[in-house]
Every structure is written in C-alpha cells, then in structure tokens.
Design brief:
It is built from three helices and four strands; from the N terminus they run βαββαβα. With 105 residues, the protein is of the alpha+beta class. It has one domain (6-103): Alpha-Beta Plaits (2-Layer Sandwich), CATH 3.30.70.120. Strands 2-3-1-4 form a four-stranded antiparallel β-sheet. It starts with 5 loop residues before the first strand and ends with a helix. The relative contact order is 0.32.
Length: 105
Amino acid sequence: MKSGVSVVFMTVPDEEKAAEIARTLVDEKMIACANILPRVRSIYRWEGKISDEPEVLVVMKTATDFKALEARVKVLHPYTTPELISLDVREGLPAYVDWVITSSR
C-alpha cells in the first residue's frame, strides 16, 4: 500500500546551494527534510560529451505533489535541467510517515 510519501533525489553543484534550496523547501513546507551528501562524483553524457564532475546529492522526503515541487525547484536550481527523481515510499515507520505528511503539506 502506498504511504503518500516520496523520496526525491536532486543533485546540485555545491553544499551551499544544496543547503539554500533545502532550507527554502523546508521553510515553504514543500519537503519535510533533506539530507545533504557532499562529494558525490557524477559521470554522465550531456550535450554530446561525457562529463565527470563533483556534485552534491540531496535526498528529500515529502508528501507534496511532485509537479508543485518540480516547479519550485526549477526556480531555485542553478541548472537548466536539474536532476529531480521521485520514488514512492511503499511502507515506512508509521510515526515517521505521519511526520513527513504533516511537515510537507
């Protein structure tokens, strides 16, 4: 059974931008929380070239509609095409799931 909560992954260029976006989204109740994982290495093809870049991974928990979160991230994010991937949480500790829902709606 679906919990109504999602885990959303986003990469950003540095920790400062990660914290700025995370704080804004928490303040606006779009996400309940964010974990910032510094120093990830991203290897990808972009505009015909293979890139190998340092980035920061942000893992967010939310019950907000993805389209609303997507629209807000597009305004806050420095990339033209930011990574923003949502995975539905099928199950979780009920008290935690309730907290995420309460904190992000």
